[in-house]
Amino acid sequence: MGREPSIRPDILDIIKYAQSLKFRQLGITSNGRMFSIPSFTKSILDEGVNQIGISLAGSNALVHDKQTQVKSSFTQTIAGIKNILKLKSPETSLLVNLPMNKLNYKDLKSQLALLINLGVREINILNISPLSLRSRSKKIIVPMTVLAKHVYNTLIADDLLNHKEIKVLLIEFPPCCLPKEARKYFFPCLEKNNNKIRIPLCQGCPFSKNCDGILDSYVSLFGDSEFKLD
């Protein structure tokens, strides 16, 4: 993961090397465009990759391509998802990441419907982090509490949080930004980030063992007054 691994000319060699190290899980995170080529998809799966994560930025080309800045990227990504679903074994996991921001968060309901109709059964909804200079802007970042409420209400309306066949995870949504009734769905991020800081609310928080706090770049944009635990 990171940048776009699928365009590396040595991607199959990397996968073969990882296999030789006996990893139990071997995954690749991609924008999905290379997977629109059936032969590429088959070669990746044949080498033993057992988890593929695809990022989708919208439910249509207008929303998606505006963010990727690549014409026809939506069409290619959807074709990639279809190829993976068609060619993968039942044991191979396909999950789709939905990075939420001001350009697409109101499109969430349509994104979920699109993926479920395609046959996707694992979906991660991501609260994007203001990590780069380009993203450290209120023009793109949705305040966490606003986004969390919208995401939760959308999932509840479609009865997806406790669905027997569809798994939805809320990634990088700290409990203090979620509505009280949604905090049980808090999913701790598996990657440590040294740029996260503790805010005063963290003292005595019952989730503090599994939550590393808030990104300092987010606090510099919005402060910490929106976060609540009552």
Quickly describe the structure.
The protein contains seven helices and eight strands; from the N terminus they run αβαβααβαβαββββα.
Describe the model:
The protein is an alpha/beta fold. It has a single domain (5-222), classed as TIM Barrel (Alpha-Beta Barrel), CATH 3.20.20. Helix content is 32%, strand content 15%. The protein has seven helices and eight strands. The protein has helices at 11-20, 38-46, 61-68, 73-87, 108-118, 144-157, 216-222; strands at 27-30, 51-55, 93-100, 122-127, 167-171, 186-187, 196-197, 214-215. A six-stranded parallel beta sheet has the order 1-2-3-4-5-6, with helices on one face. Helix 2 crosses helix 4 (73-87). The chain is globular, with a radius of gyration of 18 Å. The chain starts with 10 loop residues before the first helix and ends in an 8-residue tail after the last helix. 26% of the residues are buried. The mean pLDDT is 94.
Describe the protein's topology:
Blueprint: H1 11-20, E1 27-30, H2 38-46, E2 51-55, H3 61-68, H4 73-87, E3 93-100, H5 108-118, E4 122-127, H6 144-157, E5 167-171, E6 186-187, E7 196-197, E8 214-215, H7 216-222
Parallel strand pairs: 1-2, 2-3, 3-4, 4-5, 5-6
Antiparallel strand pairs: 7-8
Protein traits:
8 strands, alpha/beta, two-stranded antiparallel sheet, six-stranded parallel beta sheet, 230 residues, TIM Barrel
Reported for the largest beta sheet, the result is: 6 strands, parallel
Strand order of the largest sheet: 1-2-3-4-5-6
Task: Report the C-alpha radius of gyration, rounded.
Answer: 18 Å
Shape: globular
The helical percent reads 25-40%
Structural class: alpha/beta
Question: How large is the share of residues in beta strands?
Answer: 5-15%
Name of the CATH first level: Alpha Beta
List low-pLDDT spans.
none
In round numbers, the mean pLDDT is 94
| Architecture per CATH nomenclature, i.e. the level-2 architecture | Alpha-Beta Barrel
Count of separate DSSP helical elements: 7
Q: Tell how many strands the DSSP assignment holds.
A: 8
Number of domains: 1
Q: Report how far apart the termini are.
A: 37 Å
- Predict the CATH topology: TIM Barrel
SSE order? HEHEHHEHEHEEEEH
